[in-house]
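A.,

Following up on our hallway conversation. Structure tokens first:
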């Protein structure tokens, strides 16, 4: 779960991706825990997914009820039964780099004691699989949560649902954890939009076996404040760009936090400084300060509205009453230090509405609630936004605690993997 179309993390402290070797998957109709473990144990760091994509393609091609297609390292398998409805079930094959501290590939099957309940599950009104009642069998290792547990569910259902009551397009894509321009789902949507035409979509991102509707949008901008360099012993001869940036940082820290209800779900926003770069030496007044800011905005704002709102806040203007500039009208200008602050928009990914207003969504909600699950908003950004932009309503539903994504102790309860498989099987069969 990239949580945005972000740049790759810096290489320092990472375990290099293992040399790509052929991958063999077990019987797709077998134990889901064993299938998840096999997927975890097959390294597929972003950019090195080809062996796993090959294995997925080969495993699905053995099933004659599926038409199997491929674009790059994205594998698409679909039924063509002439059903009234078509749904997409999608998930990404790649992971973030292997941990240098735990070397969490290959994975393992473990028993974890006294797992804490997810706060998000409590918020959603469900109990989920993590109930804190003793030990649980989990798949441990990189990608178990994000999101090879969800991939295992998709593979097994694709292989075993030979005559679902609605046509299904199964998508297993690459490069979700890196920059947006490499995202396999996005590239496939561009190259073959007809492959992904559907009435509804489910993205298998980890949600604790709950439904998380839509997602917040994300804006990442860099602001460069200019000063004047000087010797720190004669600081008054310069303009300290870091000091000049302080009011901008303070505005971000004190930004009004909106909680917005959209189609029955309440989304919480955040605006945060996430990086600061400045200084060349300890005896030199910095003449440049670069600030990275991330704004997670609710689905009631279009992307351009979110940008205008963020800039108003950072400029010290009232945040409310945002008007989108017309024509050649300029966005709010920020000044600090020696003049105008340079603003670079590095990423602006739109939000997605919950996608719960269709009969297909209502049936899925019923299947989740039948197992004690609930419904809530997705605060981060996921690829449901790509489906939404393509006119396909979509939700997030997958096994695993999203808090464990990208952590050294990433692990996914097997009973949550089984639960998500049962929910989707009931919905599709």
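Then the amino acids I'd put at each of the 429 positions:
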């Amino acid at each position: 779960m990239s949580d945005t179309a972000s740049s790759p993390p810096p290489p320092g402290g990472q375990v290099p991706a293992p040399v790509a070797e052929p991958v063999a998957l077990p019987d797709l109709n077998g134990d889901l825990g064993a299938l998840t473990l096999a997927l975890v144990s097959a390294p597929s760091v972003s950019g090195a997914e080809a062996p796993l994509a090959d294995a997925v393609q080969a495993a699905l091609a053995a099933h004659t009820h599926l038409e199997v297609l491929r674009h790059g390292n994205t594998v698409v398998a679909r039924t063509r039964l002439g059903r009234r409805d078509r749904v997409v079930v999608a998930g990404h094959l790649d992971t973030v780099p292997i941990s240098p501290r735990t070397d969490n590939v290959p994975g393992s099957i473990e028993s974890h004691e006294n797992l804490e309940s997810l706060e998000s599950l409590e918020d959603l009104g469900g109990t989920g699989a993590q109930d804190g009642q003793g030990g649980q069998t989990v798949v441990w290792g990189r990608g178990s949560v994000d999101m090879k547990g969800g991939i295992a569910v998709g593979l097994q259902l694709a292989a075993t649902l030979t005559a679902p009551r609605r046509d299904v397009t199964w998508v297993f894509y690459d490069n979700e954890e890196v920059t947006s321009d490499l995202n396999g789902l996005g590239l496939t949507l561009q190259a073959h939009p007809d492959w992904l035409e559907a009435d509804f979509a489910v993205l298998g991102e980890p949600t604790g076996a709950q439904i998380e509707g839509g997602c917040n949008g994300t804006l990442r901008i860099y602001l460069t404040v200019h000063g004047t360099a000087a010797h720190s012993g004669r600081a008054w001869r310069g303009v300290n760009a870091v000091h000049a940036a302080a009011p901008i940082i303070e505005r971000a820290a004190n930004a009004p936090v909106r909680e917005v209800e959209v189609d029955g779900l309440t989304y919480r926003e955040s605006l945060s400084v996430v990086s600061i770069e400045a200084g060349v030496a300890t005896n030199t007044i910095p003449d440049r300060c670069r600030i990275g800011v991330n704004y997670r905005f609710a689905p009631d704002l279009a992307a351009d509205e979110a940008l205008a709102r963020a800039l108003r806040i950072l400029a010290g203007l009232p945040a409310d009453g945002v008007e989108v500039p017309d024509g050649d009208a300029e966005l709010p200008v920020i000044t600090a230090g020696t003049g105008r602050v340079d603003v670079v928009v590095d990423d602006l990914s739109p939000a997605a509405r919950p996608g719960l207003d269709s009969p297909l969504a209502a049936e899925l909600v019923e299947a989740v609630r039948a197992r004690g699950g609930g419904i809530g908003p997705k605060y981060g950004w996921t690829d449901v936004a790509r489906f939404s932009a393509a006119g396909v309503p979509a939700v997030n539903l997958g096994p695993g605690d999203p808090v464990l994504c990208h952590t050294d102790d990433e692990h996914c309860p097997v009973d949550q993997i089984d639960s998500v498989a049962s929910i989707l099987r009931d919905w599709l069969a």
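The domain at 218-349 is CATH 3.30.70.360 (Alpha-Beta Plaits). Curious whether your intuition agrees with the design.

B.
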